[in-house]
Amino acid sequence: MGPLIDCVFLLLIFFLVSTMYKKEIRDIDIIPPESDSAIKLPPDDEQIVLGIDETGRVFWQGQEISRTDLHSRLRSVAATSIDRRIRLDADHETPFELVVELLDVCQFRGLTNVGIRTYDDRYNR
């Protein structure tokens, strides 16, 4: 009975650590803009998370990348799955023209399933 309990605890620790690590990768240190009409979407592990901070740095799944890398990655995504969902996380201090620039890049590549993350008191408690 003792070895079985050890295995169960090891599995529990493994799943706790792996889920915490997965979330860490996609998080970007931003404060999203507020919205009164935000809707809560179910989590989607297949979605791509693009981020942009107030200084204009671009992030792909939480990792900072260059604009050239962004173009090439979006090109490869468009070639494999054109309907892939993309979530844009932008800080509330980010100049709007930088957000529009990222949206234009996605549209240029044919990726139209793009949403912008916002903050709403009803959902973010």
From TrEMBL:
Q: Which UniProt keywords apply?
A: Cell membrane, Membrane, Protein transport, Transmembrane, Transmembrane helix, Transport
Q: Indicate where this protein is primarily found.
A: membrane
Q: Which GO terms describe its cellular component?
A: plasma membrane
Query: Its Gene Ontology biological processes?
Result: protein transport
| MF (Gene Ontology) | transmembrane transporter activity
Tell me which stretches of the chain form a coiled coil: none
Domain of life per record = Bacteria
Q: Localized where?
A: Cell membrane
Membrane topology field: Single-pass membrane protein; Single-pass type II membrane protein
Annotated family: Belongs to the ExbD/TolR family.
In Swiss-Prot or TrEMBL terms, this protein is called Biopolymer transport protein ExbD/TolR
Q: Which organism is it from?
A: Aeoliella mucimassa
